[in-house]
Amino acid sequence: MNNNEQPTEILRQQVIDAFDTENHYAFSHVMPHKYTNFIDGLAWLSILAGSANLVGDNKVMKYCDKWCCFLLEISKDARNFAPVQVDDNWKPSNVAGIWYKEKPQSFAGPCANQWRHGDRSVFNVKTTAMALTFIAPVYGHLVRWIKPLRQHLNSVMFAHMLLNRKPPSSLLFAAKNNMIYSYLYGIKCEAHYRNTSVWPARNVWDGEEKETTYQPVCELAGRYMQQYLRERSE
C-alpha cells in the first residue's frame, strides 16, 4: 500500500507526530523525524491549517497554526526553526535554544498565510495575487510548452485561492487527479498523491518517486478539501 493510500486517521497521526510540542511545535517534513533546511513550511502548513479548519479538525489546525505563528514571531523572513543549529547558516533566535533559517519570503508562503488568516495575517499580497490571476488564462496555455514557467504553477493557483476565484479553463488540466487544484474548481476528486515531494500537488508533470519519505501534509490537506466539497453537496 502506498503511504498516501492509508486511512486518513493514520496519515493525520503521522502529521501530528511530526511536531515537537515541547519545542514550540518544531516540525519535521520527513520521516523519520529530522530537522533540515526545509523552507516551505509557511506555505504548506498554512494550507493544511486552513483545510483542517474547513472540516473541523481543531488539533491539526492548532499544531500548524502554532508552528506558523512562532515562525513569524521570530522574523517575517524566517523559513524554518528548530531546537538545533541545522547548519552554519542558521541563526540563533530571540528564544533561548531555538535556531532559525532566514531567507526572504517569496509569494506562496505569505499568500497561503493570508488565505488562512485573512486580515489577521502579517502579509498582504492581494495585489500580486490579482496580477497573477490576470495573466493566468494566457499562462495556462504557455505553461504546457514552456518548462521554466512550471515552477510558478502553485503560485498562480494559490493566488486564485486567496481571492476566492476559480482558476481559468486553460489550467483545468492541472486539476486531473489533483485533490487540491480540483478543490479550487469545485470539482470532486478521488485520487492520491505519490511520494514525489512534500507538496506533490505542484508536481503535475510526473515527478519521480523519492526514496525520502515525506510527511503527508499535502495528502491530508487534499483529503480535507475534498471532504469539505462532499459535505457541502450533501
What do you see in this structure?
By secondary structure, the chain is mainly α. The chain has one domain (3-233). Helices cover 44% and strands 8% of the residues. A hairpin with a 5-residue loop joins strand 1 (19-20) and strand 2. Helix 1 (8-17) packs across helix 8, helix 2 (41-55) runs antiparallel to helix 3 (58-74) and helix 7 packs parallel to helix 8. The radius of gyration is 17 Å and the shape is globular.
Q: Outline of this structure?
A:
The protein is built from 8 helices and 7 strands, in the order αβββααβββααααβα.
Architecture blueprint of SSEs:
Elements: H1 8-17, E1 19-20, E2 26-27, E3 30-31, H2 41-55, H3 58-74, E4 78-82, E5 91-92, E6 99-102, H4 108-117, H5 126-142, H6 153-162, H7 179-185, E7 213-214, H8 217-233
Antiparallel strand pairs: 1-2, 3-7, 4-6, 5-6
Helix pairs in contact: 1-8, 2-3, 2-4, 2-8, 4-6, 5-6, 7-8
What attributes characterize this protein structure?
7 strands, 8 helices, mainly alpha, 8% strand, 44% helix, 234 residues, globular, two-stranded antiparallel ribbon
Distance linking N and C termini: 30 Å
| Sheet having the most strands | 3 strands, antiparallel
Categorize the overall geometry: globular
Structural domain tally: 1
**What is the strand content?**
5-15%
**Which structural class should the secondary elements be placed in?**
mainly alpha
Average pLDDT value?
Answer: 96
Sketch the topology as an H/E string, one letter per element: HEEEHHEEEHHHHEH
Number of helical segments? 8
Count all strands and give the number: 7
- Provide the gyration radius in Å: 17 Å
Low-confidence regions: none
**What strand line-up does the widest sheet have?**
4-6-5
Helix content: 40-55%
